[in-house]
Fold these 2 entries.
Entry 1:
Amino acid sequence: CETDFSGYPDCRDEFVKALNQAIVLGIARDIRFETPLMWLNKAETWALADYYHQLKLVQQDTLTCYNGIKGNGCGECAACHLRANGLQQYQINKAEVMASLKQKTGLV
């Protein structure tokens, strides 16, 4: 997601669009990359997982860590710090973050 851009250029919308165009040119087929989390911050991403009753699954079985460690990761890299901070912000402000998520996505 671009909203939590922390120096990783591959997180930017501009990069994903350029990569998409390169792939289309390279394979001569129409393909569209979807980035449903691009404009959500980490707290809203946690809210989305909770909205679909998958908070524990996302917390335990997904990978954010740039050192390749699933779940809470290494706890040292920038990606792990963003992930942990997002979860903490969601847990502290669940109603507010969920409302923001719903406003951005149109979920009811």
Entry 2:
Amino acid sequence: MDQQDGFGIVDATDAVDATGARGRVLAALAERWRTGSRPGSRPGGRTDGLRIALAVEGGGMRGIISGGMALALHEAGLTGVFDAVYGASAGALTGAWLLSSDPGQLAGWADAEYARAMVRPGNVLRGRPVVDLHNLVEHLYAHVARMDFDAILANPTTLHPIATHTGTGVATDLHPLLTDPARLRLALRASAALPLLAGPPVELDGSRYYDAGLAESIPFRTALAQGATHVLVLRSRGPVPAAVATAAAAAVAAGPSRGSRMVARTVLRRYPAPLRDSYLGRAERLLADEELLGRHDLAPPADGPAVLSVRPGPEAPKVGRLTRDPVLLRAAMDAGRAAMDELIVRLS
């Protein structure tokens, strides 16, 4: 649930047209889909030499857009083509549902009960976090709309929730810590523990973690660092006009916003400097991510890892990180599904 709103530059469908071909990521996905390839049971018992990762962006309730994309992947029977799913913030929650025994519950993103469980403005009066991750994960997911944590842990497609280590300010893959359902729930909460809005950091194995967005809003760099040869990125941000992108770049050049500096001086003042520096550098890193992803979409390299982004179209509704309007959320989920459905057509 990263606080810094970003901007998109390239629509994945335009990128495919621009290359004149389906592209390396689409070709790899199509081949695995065609052969019914699954982790641990690739055709003929062999490996194809690839490591295909899914990277899911969050953004609070804006994550419903990438959640709709993940739901479309499930409905098309494509989940098993991925070797690993990397999720940042709300994207980690989506990734967990995708690898559970009932991925259809991703549709619950648009349910009013889900939004009320996660975003609770009245908590301010009770001295509790507005974004109530404890209630969402430990109550709703554990007892109401039950998430099958054991199925996620046993899934041969591995889940990699990303969080920011409070001591180093570095993006950290929590996958090695997912040894039981309780620790999985802690990891999901840690990945989305936004400073100020979601309360204190989450402790896991003696370390404390804040939201992934402080260090890695779009979790494709960790996937690449861990050997991914192909990455499909599910974006919750759509493309914007060039003039807006230019203004955003100018704002980054001007330095951290006043609000970011205030949070660094107050909420994060007791933490080591690397965490504050990471927080203040979020906008600059996001700009660098956008530029790199744009280059991959428009002119993918001939060799080395290949990355392809799926973004909602320009007509997608604007959803904020604290949006609770079920009509707006449903429209946003449908926009995400439509963007992915358009890409899936190109695999056949």
